[in-house]
């Protein structure tokens, strides 16, 4: 599996809007055949910081996600809401094994 973790820092006045459009993007991403998981987390001691945890069946699946209408809409919508640039880190999952992931 291919895992993407993104830390997002949102302007305080845009937190509510960010949550709304990000949850919509996450729900649409879950409909993609290559997506296995999409978690949206809000940091306990800094409510303007979020962590997006995304799991795809392959690098290509993630690359296809980045071309979807809903992702491009999300990216454009939230661009001006960032307090600082998003920080993304990409990973290959070692455990659980690919066959052990629930895919839908």
From TrEMBL:
InterPro entries: ABM_dom, AI-2_Isomerase_LsrG, Dimeric_a/b-barrel. GO terms for molecular function: monooxygenase activity. GO terms for cellular component: cytosol. Keywords: Monooxygenase, Oxidoreductase. Residues 2-90 form the ABM domain. Pfam families: ABM. PANTHER family: (4S)-4-HYDROXY-5-PHOSPHONOOXYPENTANE-2,3-DIONE ISOMERASE, QUINOL MONOOXYGENASE YGIN-RELATED. This is Antibiotic biosynthesis monooxygenase. The lineage of its organism: Bacteria, Pseudomonadati, Atribacterota, Candidatus Phoenicimicrobiia, Candidatus Pheonicimicrobiales.
